[in-house]
Specification:
- The protein folds into 2 domains: 275 residues, no CATH class; 239 residues, no CATH class.
- The chain is 68% helix and 4% strand.
- It contains 22 helices and 4 strands.
- The strands form 2 sheets. A two-stranded antiparallel sheet has the order 1-2. Strands 3-4 form a two-stranded antiparallel ribbon.
- The longest helix is centred in the middle third of the chain and has 32 residues.
- The N terminus and C terminus are likely disordered.
């Protein structure tokens, strides 16, 4: 991991974090009659300026050809605790910073109809904007934990106050799962920061240079895998997500699917793969298996769902399985595909969940059997649903196709794993790829051209898509199609960082292969997982 820092004249990243947070605290002072008309414009302006700040940071201070940390800013904060305000960006974080500010801007626009406690609602959206950018930008592990924790409170309130009938249950389950699991982040941060002699130091560049023992890495990796596995989410740590999506409003849906899940994938790359490479060499086969389980289990569960929100929620879980396979692939192509899958799913997931919210506003139901036959009344809405669903099922020409193809190709062609293991895992993952178009196209048929619900059509004003809704979906489709047609628009922004990360992990694998058997016992997981080069993954026996 390269540690050179790029000096910049303007604190782009600190500004992108603090600007929306400061703006959120100005929301209560905006003159408003209680309907939110002035507040929503103020929030939209703040969100758009934040997006422009992140774009300026990318254009002015970020070089995609460099693998190391850029846009670095460091201020000693609490020296006795070894805590510094250290922010920066590389290929792992910069694309997700841009995604965060972009999705949040559209989520604010999606929240236009909110009239219940609008000041509090938009305050929370703006606070989340800064908090989520901080998760991707901070370069201090203790500071990362603080940003991770502070980001949870707005989500909890957005679910608990504006959610559906079971909002209290969903919000409580969300906070128990995510806050409880994040305890492992704190424990790992303290263990790694106080490792060795000298004062505590939690900065990523410092931790990457530490000679952590294999056993120590395995313990930290296990705890972090649980913490980040909840947020990704990894089956069976996923059960909070369908409940949260089932009760959330459209803007919160967009933030959950578009940004929140990506925090788990990013953290697995940043901490588990980058800072703990020897442990990653041992856990990588498990990530492959867990990814396949995610894809198949969630796809089958989505197929059986009759609630529209829960169907799309399980679809999101299935698609995040490709991220796990890419991270565990030991291939630059596969890992790059995992990164692109996070970006792609952020855009596609946000578009689908926004359409779910827009459809519910018209039909006042989420049950597929109660919707049928609305296609003639909402033709533009049907067209938007069709395009976004085709993107989700990985139609060629869309970003989802490129990202999933990269993951498959990177994993199958990488000789770290034996050919039988690669064939079996890829074959099982392909089941999810086959199921996805079945349940998505069946969903479209039931909603728009299924058995007509005469009571719904007679008693409900089925207004077609409004200009605001068309604009939001169009903004999401432009990068979805753009990346699908020319993936280098995105992959070039992180290629150097991904290649350096994979090289680091491969070096750790070679190091493990040379370890003395006095500290570890060398065994094969199973013949299918043993690499073709006869490398034997060491399993720590403690």
């Amino acid at each position: 991991m390269v540690t050179e820092e790029v000096t910049v004249n303007f604190p782009w990243l600190s500004t992108s974090i603090l600007f929306p947070i400061v703006g959120s605290f100005l929301v209560p002072f905006i003159p408003d009659k209680g309907e939110g008309k002035q507040v929503r414009w103020f929030a939209l302006v703040i969100a758009l300026i934040t997006f422009l700040i992140t774009v300026a940071a990318y254009l002015k201070g970020y070089d995609p050809n460099q693998e190391g940390l850029q846009l670095s800013e460091r201020v000693t904060w609490l020296p006795d605790l070894g805590l510094s305000w250290a922010v920066g960006a590389d290929g792992l974080s910069m694309p997700l910073i841009l995604l965060t500010s972009f999705i949040t801007s559209l989520a604010v626009l999606a929240a236009w109809p909110v009239s219940f406690k609008p000041k509090l609602f938009f305050f929370l959206l703006l606070a989340m904007d800064g908090g989520q950018i901080a998760v991707f930008a901070v370069q201090d592990m203790l500071l990362f934990f603080l940003a991770w924790e502070l980001e949870l409170l707005p989500v909890y309130l957005l679910l608990a106050i504006w959610g559906g009938k079971k909002r209290q249950y969903a919000a409580t389950k969300f906070i128990i799962y995510t806050a409880g699991s994040s305890l492992f982040i704190l424990l790992a941060a303290l263990a790694m920061g106080f490792f060795g002699e000298g004062p505590a130091n939690f900065e990523f560049t410092h931790l990457a240079q530490q000679n952590f023992g294999t056993g120590f890495q395995v313990l930290c990796y296990t705890g972090l895998l649980i913490a980040f596995g909840v947020k990704l989410p990894i089956v069976p740590l996923h059960t909070w997500l369908p409940d949260a999506h089932g009760e959330a409003t459209a803007p919160v849906h967009m933030l959950l699917a578009g940004i929140l899940l990506k925090m788990g994938g990013y953290a697995l790359l940043r901490f588990n793969a980058q800072l703990l490479p020897e442990a990653h060499a041992q856990f990588a086969p498990l990530l492959i298996v867990l990814g396949v389980v995610n894809i198949i289990y969630a796809a089958l569960t989505s197929f059986a769902q009759r609630n529209l929100k829960r169907k799309i929620a399980y679809s999101s879980i299935s698609h995040m399985g490709f991220v796990l396979i890419g991270i565990g692939s030991f291939s630059a192509l596969g890992t790059s595909g995992a990164m692109l899958q996070m970006i792609s799913h952020g855009l596609i997931g946000a578009s689908l969940f926004f359409l779910v919210g827009a459809t519910y506003d018209r039909t006042h139901t989420l049950q597929l059997e109660e919707m049928g036959g609305v296609g003639q009344k909402m033709r533009i809405m049907f067209a938007l649903w069709t395009v976004c669903s085709l993107a989700s099922l990985a139609l060629p020409g869309m970003s989802g196709f490129v990202s999933e193809l990269m993951v498959f190709a990177g994993f199958v062609t990488d000789e770290v794993y034996t050919l039988p293991f690669r064939i079996v895992m890829a074959g099982l993952a392909a089941i999810g790829v086959i199921l996805t178009p079945i349940y998505l196209l069946s969903m479209l048929r039931e909603i728009f051209f299924g058995k007509e619900n005469s009571e719904l059509i007679a008693n409900t004003k089925l207004v077609d898509a409004e200009p605001r809704e068309i604009y939001i979906i169009s903004c999401l489709l432009v990068p979805i199609i753009g990346i699908g047609l020319y993936p280098r628009l995105m992959t070039d922004s992180y290629r150097a960082s991904i290649e350096a990360l994979v090289k680091r992990d491969l070096n750790a694998m070679e190091k493990l292969n040379k370890l003395s058997i006095s500290s570890v016992k060398r065994i094969n997981f199973v013949p299918a997982i043993a690499p073709a080069t006869q490398f034997k993954f060491p399993i720590l026996l403690g």
